[in-house]
Amino acid sequence: MSIPKTSHLISSILVVLLAAAPVPSEAHHSFAAEYDSLKPVTVTGVVTRVEWTNPHTYIYVDVTDKDGKVTTWGFEMGPPHMLQRAGWKKNSLSIGEQVIVDGWMARNRSQYANARKVTRVSTGEVLGAASSGGQTLTGNPGGARPDTP
Amino acid sequence: MRALALFVLGLGVLLPAATPGQQAGSPGSQHPDLTRPPPRGPDGRISFAGTPQEVGNWEGPPGATMIFNKGRPAVPGAALPTNLTVDQVPFQPWAREQYMKRQANLTADDPHTRCKPSGGPRLWHTPYGIEVLDMPETKEVIFIGVGAPHSWRIVYLDGRPHPKDLKPSWYGHSIGHWEGDTLVIDTVGFNERFWLTREGVPHTSKAHLIERISRPNFYQLKYEATIDDPGAYTHAWSGGWFLRWSPGNEPFDYLCQENNRDPARMIGPQGEH
Amino acid sequence: MSSRARAPLAALAGLGAAIVAFYGAPVWTTSAAAAALGEVPPPRFSDGMVRFDRAPGEKGYWSLPSASSLIEEGVSVKMDARGRLANLADASRVAPFQPWALALYQYRQKNDFVDDPMHECIGPGNPRAMLTPGGIRIIQDRNYNRVYILYGGGNHGWRVIFLDGRKPPDPDEVVGTFYGNAVGHWEGDTLVVESIGFNTRFWFSNGGLPHTEALHLTERFSRPSHDVLRYEVTIDDPRTYTRPWKSAWTFRWVPGDIAEYYCETGRP
Questions:
Q1: Which B positions 100-159 lie with beta carbon below 8 A of chain A?
Q2: Which of these, A61, B9, B71, C187, is most buried using a 10 Å CB contact count?
């Protein structure tokens, strides 16, 4: 078996590593300046609002803790067109439905995060968030890139 | 040796599995066939677009940079093999300091993020797709960008010179010509209100930019920029990246100003949760 | 008529003819414009399709729209270039408003457009962008069978029209945009474009005419002569207006290239 060239091997290793880690900059801004890729967060709550806007769609989720206190979380996702390419429709999420959102925390200590994916509790359906943090235009999360010639 | 071979074999299994249902070599796969030649017109003229049966456009890869940064992962295609490291870039001292400051703040202050138009290389790693309209009959090439600022840029290939009394602008004045299959663009007249690249490469209004765009295969557009800016650098230098073909991607409506919340939250590295 | 009266009249007529010959006919009616500028036929592609943009080797673009604001065709009211009525009492004549829409239009007019989202560069959207100063170009992409409209004013933006026969999306399922989802087809030399799927975050006319997500536009582009582009738009928004209504204007072909301009909010 032939040994691949070192550069190809390094490229392949990097591709594997990157498939796991969020890659900054699929959005119009620096991911790293706003969100912390080392601080993942998962939130379960009820959808109260969806803003289908550019440059980012935002969903707002009310989370109730065991003492009954309600906190509102905001999640940033990709622009509406990219979400729609990934299968979303304007009526995909209903106000009042339960969702689980996975993402990365905002740096500014607010209850904001960059969403990686949204799971609808009632159906189990998983919707990618098409935002910065690893999703590409073709929808492959953290997908590999072509090797340089 | 055996460990290495097993490791490589492992990679070979792992990577295609990340995108189930896609054959290696097909347009949507993670490993497009880079030996596939680019399309050409009936007269042999190279095309930077797709075909009616194979629609798509160009996506700047995540992390595309003109300068290799030590410690940043070099995503394949995100930098040309000939890119310089930071230490090799012929910055003037003020420009190096400005670049380092922008980097240290994790590019939180990028004017592009505030929906400002951004000329030169900045277009070429704007997300969501770039269309190249080659118009030989009217001797122009028009670039259509989807992401901020959702605008169009025109290059004149009719042999005109740069005007003498150029008012500084966001995109400058671009004239171009073909060298074989490479489109060469010459731009002057930039204002100083934007960043040349998203990593924060500085420039002044003296900047003279040469861009060379070619298509080595169907799936890649090679973008190389040469910056000749006696206000910021001690001599000209070059860098660039490969854009990748985004199969099926079409231009879409997008307005950066619509609901732009990020600038207020982009606080750079000092934030801690 | 006596010969003494005839002479000054003849002189006046001669003077008028000289003025028209020098400046060209005024462009406030499409038929007058076509007559005055109609000598040169529009350029065509080699397969006969009319060209809306430059002929090979040409420069130029579309500018000098014959209207400055959206008003129902056939209605004549005093209005400035920003779309502000000289007399608020004329408001109900501008378009066939539903009562709520007339009230909103009057409110916007009375307040001199303080709430216009274009103050924040949000817009102009369609069809307002077809009247925003700065010029336009209409690029026919024969490869992908699309048309791009490039705008010089507003946000120096663009919109795309797909001519591949695709069905427009369901407006209840698709997120509304500023230019809508546009599909087009040819009827002879006229490009007919249907757009649906608009959001309501912009004013679709500079004078503050309201619209809802039910907006459906039908546009007709034609080039009766080299120098004239005719644009006609039908507004069909049953939640805002009591019936569909239309407006039309022309553009003149002018020499040169579109200048760079970008809307700015004034914030850093």
A1: 105-108, 110, 112-113, 125-129, 147-148
A2: A61
In this structure, are C87 and C197 located in the same domain?
Answer: yes
Question: What is the number of structural domains in chain C?
Answer: 2
Q: Which of C260, C261, C263, C267 is the best residue to mutate to test the B interface, defined by the most B CB atoms within 10 Å of its own CB?
A: C260
Residues of A in contact with C199 (CB under 8 A): 52
Is C153 in the same domain as C106?
A: yes
The pLDDT tens digits of the residues spanning C224-251 come to 999 999 999 999 999 999 999 999 999 9
Residue C21 and residue C139 in one domain: no
Show the domain range for B236. 58-246
Q: How many CB pairs under 8 A join A and C?
A: 17
> Is residue C165 domain-shared with residue C231, that is, in the same domain?
yes
Most A CBs within 10 Å, among C172, C175, C179, C198, to test the A interface = C175
CB-based burial, A58-74: b 16+ in 10 Å, e otherwise: bbbbeeeeeeeeeeebb
Chain B positions in Cβ-Cβ contact with residue C174 (cut-off 8 Å): none
pLDDT tier for residue A131 given thresholds of 50, 70 and 90: low
- Residue C76 CA to residue A113 CA, distance in Å, equals 53
Q: Which of residues 65-84 of A touch C (CB under 8 A)?
A: 80-81, 84
Same domain? C204 vs C83: yes
What's the predicted TM-score (pTM) here?
0.84
Task: With beta carbons less than 8 A apart as the criterion, state whether A55 and A31 touch.
Answer: no
Of C173, C199, C201, the CB nearest to A89: C173
Which residues 201-220 of B are in CB contact (within 8 Å) with A? 216-217, 219-220
Q: What is the three-class DSSP state of C218?
A: strand
| Residue B99 parent element (H or E) | helix B93-104
Residue C240 lies in a domain: yes
Concatenating the DSSP letter of every residue in B142-156 gives: EEEE-STT--EEEEE
**What's the CATH architecture for A26-128?**
Beta Barrel (2.40)
Contacts for C100 with CB less than 8 Å, ≥ 6 apart: none
Count of CB contacts below 8 A, B vs C? 79
Counting residues of chain A whose pLDDT is more than 70, the rounded percentage is: 68
CB atoms A91 and C173 under 8 Å: yes
Predicted pLDDT at B71: 57
Which of B139, B151, B169 lies closest to C155 in CB terms? B151
Please indicate, yes or no, whether residues C24 and C112 belong to a single structural domain of this protein.
no
Same domain, C72 and C159: yes
Neighbours of C, requiring at least 3 CB pairs below 8 Å, are A, B
- Is the model's pLDDT at B17 over the cut of 50? no
Which residues, other chains included, contact B108 with Cβ-Cβ below 8 Å and sequence gap of 6+? A30, A33, A34, B266, B267, B268
Predicted local confidence at residue A36, as pLDDT = 84
Subunits in contact with chain A (3 or more CB pairs closer than 8 Å): B, C
pLDDT confidence of residue C230: 98
Domain range holding C162?
Answer: 61-254
Q: Domain check: are C155 and C23 in the same one?
A: no
CA contacts within 13 A on the Cβ side of B204: 13
Candidates B141, B255, B262, partner chain C, best to mutate (most C CBs within 10 A) = B255
